[in-house]
Design goal:
This protein has 340 residues and is of the alpha+beta class. It contains 6 helices and 19 strands. The protein has 2 domains: 94 residues, no CATH class; 218 residues, no CATH class. A 10-stranded mixed sheet has the order 10-9-8-13-14-15-16-17-18-19. Strands 1, 3, 5, 6 and 7 form a 5-stranded mixed sheet that branches. A hairpin with a 5-residue loop joins strand 17 and strand 18. It is elongated and about 85 Å long.
Length: 340
Amino acid sequence: MWGVVAGVGAVAGEVEATRFDWVDPRRLAIETDARFVDPRWERALSECLERCRPFRADDVDGLAEVSQALFELPFVAEVGPPRLVWPDGAVVDVRFERPVACLRRGATFLCVSAQGRVLPGGWAAPPTLDGLTLPVLGRLGQDESDAVPGQPLSRAGLWHGLSLVLSLEEHLDRDERLALGTLTIDAENGALGQVEDPGAVLHLEGRRVVLWGRTPDVDAPGALPTELKWRHVVEAVELSNAQKLLWRAVDVRWDEYAVALRHDEPVPEPEVWRDATERAKDEEARRRADGSASGGGTVGGAVRGGDRTAPGGNWEPPPSSWDPPGDVNRGARPTLGRVR
């Protein structure tokens, strides 16, 4: 639904602009179908319109100046042509940038749009939109000091991470995203595909990590489809949240994902997991025998999923790689405002 998010004075209705001479930009109303608008953006819109000069109703350049001034705001993605409205105002359709992720800059978090644009307005913690916490791009606790509101992401690793966020929106429903909790995406190595390098790494709450491999924006022939990787993540998270399988790392690069179990909590070992472990050992032995030993790792002695067991040895992520900064998961989440 479209709604008015800025403008001074009421608009009675659109009429032909033939009975008035001048348009006051301060009376211009902005309409949008955005799911939310940051209140700080609304203030910036009003201040922008106050700086615009009044113009004659037939002044094409005056209309263009208002549109250009709005378009130059760092959170505006598109501006439609103004429509003159009696007695001395106008209406313009504006499409705002849509936040899908955030990054840490200093002590605050800045939102990032689906187009990779850093948006103005800092938050004390990763903000939520419609009850979902926006994923954080970058290494755990890393200060993206070169991030500039209104400018695109500054590094390839952040763009790799954004492609993962967009695939998350595409393949997971709301409940599945809620189950993930707060998510940090370290995709600095998102273009790497070697067996010994995990590529992109997803950090979940509870000191859990997901080894992803190449990100969706990287051409990787033979890589596991993105949708199947997300299915692996969802299944592993569901098992962990239900206390049926307590893991600290999961590798989703293979047809059958592999997990590293937590060492600080007892975990029952059902027959299915012992069987899977034996299959992994047999597969590894077979591949080594014919000289084709390559691929992923059976981590912590348990695998599950798919039709093919990932061969290889143990993978032990460094402890520091999943220790979240103390303030990431602390306190209430700020919530992005909605269109009034």
